[in-house]
Each structure stands twice: as structure tokens, then as C-alpha cells.
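WARN no homologs supplied; continuing
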Amino acid sequence: MFIHKRDLVALVLALVLLVAGSGSALADSQRWTFDDLSAQQIEDILDTLGDVMTYERDTDGTGDPMWRISITESGLNFSLYVYDDDEDDPDNYESLLARSGFGMSSPPTIWTVNGYNQEKRFSRAFLDGDGDPIVEADLDVGGGVTDEAITRFLLRFSLSVNSFASWIGYQ
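OK structure emitted
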């Protein structure tokens, strides 16, 4: 199995962050647990990942906040969307969708994309209606997750973006 240099660098960086405990700005005794998230809480978590990714806040087609995220080491990008407004607080959301699309003049075949899905975990890939390859992952926070779990989700997805780009031969 061939590991692309950017995959290896991203993996090492993510492992260093997790082992060193810098994946979150909070000490273990100060962990936050969420069953929904506001835009500000999402940005607070993204701010802790400033060495690994940068972000810009935007609004999606329905008026909800979204973030355009750039992976520092590889320069690849993904978007983070919020879904499932909390009934009691419409500015809080109960799920996240991380998504990255790759416009390619020669996109991969469905067989290549299916091969990725068979070999990899924690994300799924498909060809959209235009034939462009997409990789995405969901996180349901409705049952309660810690800030560390959200941080790990974002780090893991950045690894998936890098891995998928290599898998499909994206330059």
C-alpha cells in the first residue's frame, strides 16, 4: 500500500496533536459536552485547530452558518455545514456535515470511488450529478459529544480529504 507524503504528514500532525493533548484548549477536568452546537461554539473548537486548519465563516443556501476550511499542510479544502436545528433553540444545531468536492477534467470511475469506500472508514465518497468526486462525513451531536470528539471528527475528516485526493489522483 502506497502512502502519499501529504497523507503521512497530516497523520503525523494529527497524532501529535492528539497525543500531546493540544487537540483541545480545555484540560480534561474542563471538558465540554454538547447535545447541540451554536455557530460560536463551533468556531471556538475550530480556533483550537489553528495550526492544522484555517476557516472562514459563510452562509449556506438556507441561511444557516457554514465554514470553508483549508487544511494547512496540503492546501486542500472542505466545507462544514450544520443541520437539524434544535426545536428549543433554532440557532443551535444537532448535526454536522463535513464535505469536500474535487473538480477534475478526468474524474475517477465509480469503481475507483467504490474502492475507496470499501477500504476506508469514517467517511464516504461518491460521484455527484456532474460526475465530480465528493467525500463527506456526518457527526450527530444530539446524543451528546465532547469538544474532543468534535475536534477528532474534524481532524479525522481532514485526513480523509487528503487520503481521498490521493486515492483519486487529484493534483
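Residues 11-26 have pLDDT under 50 and may be disordered.
OK
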